[in-house]
Specification:
This protein has 274 residues and is α/β, with parallel strands linked by helices. Helix content is 43%, strand content 16%. It has a six-stranded parallel sheet, sandwiched between helices. Helix 11 (249-258) links the parallel strand 9 (241-244) and strand 10. Helix 4 (102-109) crosses helix 6.
Length: 274
């Protein structure tokens, strides 16, 4: 098989990364994907960087064995803890790795914001990766990063609209550190599902804040990289595979929230050495 026809490997701690998969397939409809959601080890947001790297290694090896042409780390927690490590492993097979942080940092620093808020898991925010990478490109830009650990489990449990999610969202966004922001990065692949609710919070509070859901920005980076390398699949029949490390009916149901088509999830054990 020519490299062009190979699949794009995408992974996340669970099914949140399907928001990235959706965005990729929207602008690259002829691509095939191999998706791996590490539902057995979810959430990554509360794991140590060492543990996230260990899981990411096994997943990367699985995707490389699946002969993918590119790997997308569709998880902010794994992108902050394991990007360099995954890239090193993939380089051996000349497979390019895209994370969900660098394209967003490029996007932010190319727009003239003054004060950017970033919300994400404890792992992502604790790593300081957003302030560090943003300040490497723009020292002037004020960055306020806030851990919002309840949001991913809340969304994964199906609470995206209604009073419970509204109260949680409001409590986080009212944090003093976010006063005066002109942009807010949703630095977790689950958060595009509550983008509208977040926008509504700022409208209700008469604040003009650009809400940056990162899935579309990352999809554009995938497109640009494949185009640069002449690897865009042209007109062939695409075929998608979705793997999870632990299968439950709840995951199957929640998957429909994130991915708007019928998905057949296959359980696979790739962590045999544990
Ligand atoms: N998808 C993960 C991320 O983008 C959040 C869920 C988790 O904590 O595993 O950080």
């Amino acid at each position: 098989m020519s490299k062009t026809q190979k699949s794009i490997g995408i992974f996340d701690s669970g099914i949140g990364g399907l928001t990235v998969a959706n965005a990729i397939l929207k602008i690259l409809p002829n691509e095939s994907i191999v998706y791996f959601g590490d539902t057995a080890h979810l959430p990554y947001g509360d794991k140590s960087p060492e543990m996230i790297r260990k899981y990411s290694r096994s997943i990367t090896e699985f995707l490389l064995q699946s002969d993918v042409k590119m790997i997308v780390i569709a998880c902010n927690s794994a992108s902050s803890a394991a990007f360099d490590y995954v890239r090193e492993l993939a380089q051996v097979q000349q497979v390019e790795v895209i994370n969900v942080i660098d394209p967003v940092v490029d996007y932010i620093t190319n727009h003239h914001y003054h004060h950017v808020g970033v919300i994400g898991t404890r792992a992502t925010i604790g790593s300081q990766i957003f302030p560090e990478k943003i300040h490497q490109k723009d020292v002037q830009l004020k960055v306020s990063a806030l851990a919002t650990p309840l949001l991913a489990p809340m969304i994964e449990s199906g609470f995206v609209k209604g009073e419970i999610s509204k109260a949680v969202i409001e409590t986080y966004l009212a944090d003093k550190s976010l006063n005066g922001i002109d942009a807010l990065v949703l630095a977790c692949t689950h958060y595009p599902l509550i983008k509208k609710e977040i926008e509504q919070y700022f409208i209700d509070n008469n604040q003009v804040v650009n809400i940056i859901a990162t899935n579309e920005i990352v999809a554009q980076a995938v497109y640009d990289t494949l185009k640069r390398d002449n690897l865009i699949s042209l007109g062939s029949k695409s075929k998608h595979q979705f793997f999870v490390s632990d299968y439950t009916d709840t995951f199957k149901e929640t998957t429909q929230l994130f991915y708007h088509q019928e998905v057949s999830l296959q359980q696979i054990d790739i962590f045999k050495e544990e």
